[in-house]
């Protein structure tokens, strides 16, 4: 009986310690957020990835989001006008990584274009 009381007390004490630490050190706000980063800007160029799927999109304005992104038609979710073209303004989220391979001059081998930002997960476009 004495052992059972000690086990019960230890269990209650452990629970109380966890509750106190939970209040003193709550999870950070970013704990449950996804690994997607927001971006937006004006598309200046779109180059088709001829050896792989997708397009390399260059966004130059605004400077904070400037860089090369990978757009994958059919995989990237489109909102609003469903149009992605040079001079369009876009807003969305992207994940890191991505490969855009193009055909290089003879002997017709594949090379890759830089994707400095990542792969676009979803976007909305304007006029």
CATH C-level class of the largest domain: Mainly Beta
Biggest pleated sheet: 5 strands, mixed, barrel
Strand content: 35-45%
Shape: elongated
- Which ranges are low-confidence, i.e. pLDDT below 50, for 5 or more consecutive residues? 29-33
By oligomeric state, this entry counts as: single chain
Give the helix level as a range of percent: 10-25%
Summing up helix and strand content along with how strands pair, one would put the structural category as: alpha+beta
CATH names the topology of the largest domain as OB fold (Dihydrolipoamide Acetyltransferase, E2P)
Count of discrete structural domains: 2
Topology, number of strands: 8
Structure description:
With 127 residues, this protein is α+β, with helices and mostly antiparallel strands. The protein folds into two domains: 2-32; 37-125, OB fold (Dihydrolipoamide Acetyltransferase, E2P) (Beta Barrel). Helix content is 18%, strand content 40%. It contains one helix and eight strands, in the order αββββββββ. It has one helix spanning 2-24; strands spanning 37-48, 55-61, 67-71, 77-80, 89-95, 100-103, 110-113, 118-125. It is elongated and about 85 Å long.
